[in-house]
Amino acid sequence: MEFETTRKLRDYDTWGEVRRAWEAGETGASLARRYDVGLANLWRRRASEGWVRRKGPDPRPEPIEGWDRYARAQMEAFELRRDETRSLAKVLAAAMQGGAREPVPLWHAGYVLRWRAEHLGAEVAAADREYFRKHEWADAFWDEAGRLEELWVLDQVTLEANREAWREEVGLPPGVAEGWP
What we know:
The chain is mostly helical. Helices cover 56% and strands 0% of the residues.
């Protein structure tokens, strides 16, 4: 009994698709099934035509503590930042509506002063200036004409006057990175 074998001939476009898919990372077995090509032919073409897989990004290594503990720690840190942000928003909103200035954190004082001066009027701005006289460095917040400086100036004055507090807050020990801030 004779068996007649039929050869499967695939055109260049089909082999081009197979090559692009293999180089993108698909397995040879799945490509052989999908395009109905012989796996041996796929490997032979790959070798003879010099197909090369593109190197993708390295997978992120699993943390020492495992993904679940890492995720839990990240969630706790996220919730802490979120709650701190909400607390800060309450303090800033109250101060910006004419409430107390005392609870406003130092690094946000210039922003609140600027906002209050622009939205709450000259009386509030004058009271704020009087209040901030307790800090000798805060005199630089106002120009010779008594106008409040731009926000970037207020931030810079605050940072320069409270350099050591900033360095401690961000964890810079004495004697390192002296150019900051």
